[in-house]
Amino acid sequence: MTEFTPVASLIGGMLIGLSAVLMMLLEGRIAGISGIASRALPPWRDNAVAGRLAFIAGLVAAPFLVAGVTGAPVVQTVSSNTPLMLAAGLLVGFGSVWGGGCTSGHGVCGLSRLSRRSFVATAIFMVAGFLTVFVVRHLIGG
Amino acid sequence: MSILVNLGLGLLFGVGLIVSGMGNPAKVLNFLDLFGTFDPSLAFVMGGAVVVAFIGYRLVLARPAPLLAERFQVPTRTDIDARLILGPALFGIGWGLGGFCPGPAFTALGLGAPGTLVFVPAMLAGMWAARALAERRT
C-alpha cells in the first residue's frame, strides 16, 4: 500500500508542468526526458549536449534538495530483483526512444499540445502498464 | 548560460517528481494496479502538469521566439506509424515491471538503491540502441 496523496501530487505535477513551460519559453524545446537523455548519449550531433547533461544533473540532484529543505529523507521502494530491473530498464529505454517519447514528452508535453500522436502513445503505454501489473501481481501472483 | 538554465529546469522537474511521489516506483506500480492496491495519485500528477502546460504553452507559443534560442522546436508529425505503437507498448511493459519511467529513474539514481543501479544503465543502453537503430534505418 502507498498513501493516496492528492494535494502533494497535484502540486508536484504543477511544478513538472511549470518546468515544461519554462523549457519552451527559454529554450524553445519539449521537456521530454527520454529525448533529452538519449541525445545526451553519443554520438553527439549538436551543441546542446552540455545543456542536456545539466538537465539530467538537476534531476539527479532534486531528491537531495527536497530532503535538505524538508529535513525528511526521500522514501522509495525499488525492486531489487536484478533480472526484472534489467529487463524493465531495457524496455523503458528502448521503447521510449523508439516511440518518440515517454511519460513526460508524450504524456505531459504532448497531451498539453493536443498532439494526436501523443494521445495514441500515452493510451498505449498506460494500457501496457496496467496489463503488465495485472499479469505480474494477479495472474503470476508476484 | 544554457547549462545553468537546464540545470535549474532539471532541478525543478525533479523536485516536482519527488514532491508528487512519482520518484517512488511503489506509488507508480500501485497506480497501475487497478484491481489491487490502487493509488490514484499519478492521475493528479498528470492532471496538474497538463493543466499548467496546456495554459503555459498557449501563452509561450504566442510569442515569436523563445528567449534563449532562435526558434521553437515543436514536433509537427501527425501520422500514426508502427513505431508509435510498438515503442509505447514496450515502454509500458517495462514501466509496469519496474515502476520507473526515465525521469524518476534519474531522480532515484543518487539514492543508490540496488534495483536503480541495474535499471538506469539498462535504460541508457536501451535508449542508445533505439537511437542507433532508428538512425540506421533513415
Automatic annotation (TrEMBL), chain A:
InterPro entries: Sulf_transp_TsuA/YedE. It is found in: Cell inner membrane. The chain crosses the membrane at residues 6-28, 49-72, 84-107, 119-140. Keywords: Cell inner membrane, Cell membrane, Membrane, Transmembrane, Transmembrane helix, Transport. It is a multi-pass membrane protein. Its main location: membrane. The keyword DNA damage does not apply. Belongs to the TsuA/YedE (TC 9.B.102) family. This is YeeE/YedE family protein. It comes from Ancylobacter moscoviensis.
TrEMBL record, chain B:
It comes from the Bacteria. The chain crosses the membrane at residues 41-61, 82-100, 106-130. Keywords: Membrane, Transmembrane, Transmembrane helix. Pfam families: DUF6691. This is YeeE/YedE family protein. It comes from Ancylobacter moscoviensis.
